[in-house]
Amino acid sequence: MAIKLYACVTAQCDECHNTLTNDDEVLLHFDNQTEAINEAKGMGWQQTADGQLLCEDCADPLPECPTCGPDCTNRTHDRVFRTRGY
């Protein structure tokens, strides 16, 4: 039996660290970063202006932050935990 090592790229959400899988929950592997990002976007993921890759759940806009107001960019405020059940 031959054992071979292959290098590949997978897509992972920068927020919750979920990985991109198909409908059967099988981890998807790609030859390069561009392919992974394009496939993720095609499956509803979003890439932010600063390059972060976010799954569908994390890309959903959050309600207004009660501490900072509508312009809050601190995703660690308790609003994240309340709205996502963390």
Structural class by SSE content: mainly alpha
Largest sheet: 2 strands, antiparallel
| Residue share in helix | 10-25%
Shape: elongated
Number-wise, the strands total 2
What does the average pLDDT come to? 83
The helix/strand order is HEEHH
- Please give the radius of gyration in angstroms: 16 Å
What's the total helix number?
3
Structure, described:
The chain is mainly α. Helices cover 24% and strands 5% of the residues. It has 3 helices and 2 strands, in the order αββαα. The chain has helices at residues 33-42, 56-59, 78-84, and strands at 46-47, 53-54. It has a two-stranded antiparallel sheet. β1 and β2 form a beta hairpin. The longest helix has 10 residues, at 33-42. The model is unreliable at 81-86 (pLDDT under 50).
Keywords:
86 residues, two-stranded antiparallel ribbon, 3 helices, elongated, disordered C terminus
What's the layout of helices and strands?
Elements: H1 33-42, E1 46-47, E2 53-54, H2 56-59, H3 78-84
Antiparallel strand pairs: 1-2
Summarize, please.
The chain is mainly alpha-helical.
